[in-house]
């Protein structure tokens, strides 16, 4: 299994793609979230949008879903196969309301999400080519539905969230790597995780953490290395690769 960061930036990142990863395994793949910046990142990897087989959406902030209309339309025009779209049942109606203005109208009458994707409504877990993925509810903003994703025994991907220390203490030992968002700025946001909170985790968890979803200062590899040396943490960069 290989996990490649298509982007590691936060909502306001300009110099790097927004936070999303491509996971390749067993002749298939899964992309977690689909910002529009994924198109350029996939091209940099020598891939096309038609190579995307499966997508999982964590939550509906613009920098996590604003490439879905492009992906669906592109696949409908240039591919014989629709991508699989995995959406938690609690999120499906809101996702369609978010996307429908751009993909419902057509020259032959109203379209549905299923005209662009093979839609899979997820509850407890889903499986792709023998690999199981488990969405787990996270805390981001009040009233916003958001999920992280466990793929035991390989990784946990937090997406955007406040730190849930109990979750990491209970489940972090079951995976090799914890890809966790981190604000990396001085101002504290209750909807995100601060560097100080990560540094307060037990060493056995900190040693597994890879930081992601940060602002553009750390797009510069030298700035990332300096912070890694100071904190002992690993920071993902655009197109960083992790193998399991």
Short summary of the structure?
Helices cover 25% and strands 25% of the residues.
Number of strands: 14
Query: Outline, from the CA principal axes?
Result: globular
Task: Give the termini distance in whole angstroms.
Answer: 5 Å
CATH fold-type name: Metallo-beta-lactamase, Chain A
The pLDDT mean sits at 96
What order do the strands of the largest sheet run in, or round the barrel if closed? Answer: 6-5-4-3-2-1-14
Alpha plus pi helix count: 8
Give the full name of the CATH homologous superfamily: Ribonuclease Z/Hydroxyacylglutathione hydrolase-like
Helix percent reads 25-40%
- Classified by CATH, the class is Alpha Beta
* Architecture (CATH level 2) name: 4-Layer Sandwich
* Structural class determined from secondary elements: alpha/beta
Radius of gyration (Å): 17 Å
Poorly predicted parts: none
Percent of residues in β-strands: 25-35%
Count of the domains:
1
Secondary structure elements and pairings:
Layout lengths: L1 E6 L12 E6 L2 E5 L5 H7 L9 E3 L5 H4 L2 H11 L5 E5 L3 H12 L14 E5 L3 E3 L2 E7 L9 E5 L3 E3 L7 H7 L5 E5 L13 H5 L3 H4 L2 E4 L8 H11 L2 E2 L5 E3 L1
Parallel strand pairs: 3-4, 4-5, 5-6, 10-11, 11-12, 12-13
Antiparallel strand pairs: 1-2, 1-14, 2-3, 7-8, 8-9, 9-10
Report on this structure:
The structure is a single chain. It is built from eight helices and 14 strands. The model has no long low-confidence stretch (mean pLDDT 96). The protein has one domain: Ribonuclease Z/Hydroxyacylglutathione hydrolase-like (Metallo-beta-lactamase, Chain A, 4-Layer Sandwich). The strands form two sheets. Strands 6-5-4-3-2-1-14 form a seven-stranded mixed β-sheet. Strands 7-8-9-10-11-12-13 form a seven-stranded mixed β-sheet. The protein is 25% helix and 25% strand. It is of the alpha/beta class.
């Amino acid at each position: 299994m290989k996990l490649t960061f298509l982007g590691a930036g936060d909502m306001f990142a300009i110099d790097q793609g927004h936070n999303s990863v491509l996971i390749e395994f067993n002749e298939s793949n899964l992309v977690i979230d689909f910002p529009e910046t994924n198109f350029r990142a996939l091209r940099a990897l020598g891939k096309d949008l038609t190579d995307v087989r499966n997508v999982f959406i964590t939550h509906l902030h613009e920098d996590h879903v604003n490439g879905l209309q492009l992906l669906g339309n592109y696949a409908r025009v240039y591919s014989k196969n629709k991508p699989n779209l995995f959406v938690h049942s609690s999120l499906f109606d809101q996702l369609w309301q978010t996307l429908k203005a751009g993909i419902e109208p057509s020259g032959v009458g109203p379209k549905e999400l299923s005209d662009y994707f093979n839609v899979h409504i997820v509850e407890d877990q889903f499986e792709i080519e023998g690999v199981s993925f488990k969405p787990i509810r996270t805390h981001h903003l009040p009233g916003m539905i958001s999920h992280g994703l466990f793929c035991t025994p390989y990784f946990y991907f937090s997406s955007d969230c406040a730190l849930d220390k109990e979750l990491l203490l209970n489940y972090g030992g079951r995976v090799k790597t914890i890809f966790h968002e981190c604000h990396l700025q001085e101002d504290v946001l209750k909807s995100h995780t601060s560097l100080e909170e990560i540094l307060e985790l037990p060493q056995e968890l900190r040693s597994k953490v890879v930081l992601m979803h940060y602002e553009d200062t750390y797009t510069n590899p030298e700035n990332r290395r300096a912070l890694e040396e100071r904190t002992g943490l690993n920071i993902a960069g655009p197109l960083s690769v992790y193998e399991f």
